[in-house]
């Protein structure tokens, strides 16, 4: 996996197997087969914040040979359009958060040229966004036409029951005792955004280690201010 000379971190433990499927079975099967068949896939994933877009892009990156893949989150501060030059040498290019540069002419032109180069080279391109391509504020019509021509998947949001299962799975992986009543309380009293929930779990984990206390509903109230 090539890393750009910035604070861009790829979670090496993220896999398609660790993604809670919910109603996304078809999408997951589609992504999982990218390494088992010769493909020239251009895939556009979109969904609500915390729906797992970054997880899936990183999972695809991790399931392929490191030298053939690059992962680039466009929401990172300090990136420039020139960084897209030369990326067509990779078999898999995973571009996260295209929303962050929509409307920027230089970025749009750079993405347009990269798209064409990857197509000519028979490579794979995966793009994520919080919106479908038709709702992006893209000003370069040629780029918009190419984005809409990609295979588009909407990532279906998890139900509250799915999120409870995910919380308890992540807690178990950390060796944390996190009972169903605690998970239900967190979901009923806080944001249901997955990023927030994972951050809250990490905060509770650290606080319980410092206080040497089990994670109970009263403890959650104190630590998270719920």
Automatic annotation (TrEMBL):
It comes from the Bacteria. GO terms for biological process: DNA replication initiation; negative regulation of DNA-templated DNA replication initiation. Residues 39-162 form the AAA+ ATPase domain. InterPro entries: AAA+_ATPase, DnaA_dom, Hda, Hda_lid, P-loop_NTPase. Pfam families: Bac_DnaA, Hda_lid. NCBIfam families: DnaA_homol_Hda (TIGR03420). This is Regulatory inactivation of DnaA Hda protein. It comes from Pleionea mediterranea.
């Amino acid at each position: 996996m090539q890393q750009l000379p910035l604070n861009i971190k790829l979670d090496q433990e993220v896999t398609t197997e660790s993604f809670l499927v919910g109603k996304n079975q078809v999408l997951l099967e589609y992504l999982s087969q990218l390494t088992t068949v010769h493909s020239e896939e251009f895939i556009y994933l979109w969904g609500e914040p915390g729906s797992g877009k970054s997880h899936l892009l990183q999972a695809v990156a991790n399931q392929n040979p490191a030298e053939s893949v690059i992962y680039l989150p466009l929401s990172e501060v300090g990136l420039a359009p020139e960084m897209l030059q030369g990326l067509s040498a990779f078999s898999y290019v995973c571009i996260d958060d295209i929303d962050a540069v929509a409307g920027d002419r230089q970025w749009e032109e750079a993405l347009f040229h990269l798209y064409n180069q990857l197509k000519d080279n028979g490579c794979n391109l995966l793009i994520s966004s919080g919106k479908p391509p038709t709702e992006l504020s893209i000003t370069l019509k040629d780029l918009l036409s190419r984005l809409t021509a990609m295979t588009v998947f909407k990532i279906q949001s998890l139900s509250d029951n799915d999120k409870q299962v995910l919380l308890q799975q992540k807690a178990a992986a950390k060796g944390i005792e996190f009972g169903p009543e605690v998970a239900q309380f967190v979901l009923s009293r806080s944001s249901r955004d997955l990023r927030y929930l994972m951050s809250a779990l990490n905060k509770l984990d650290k606080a319980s280690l410092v206080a040497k206390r089990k994670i109970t509903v009263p403890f959650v109230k104190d630590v998270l201010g719920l």
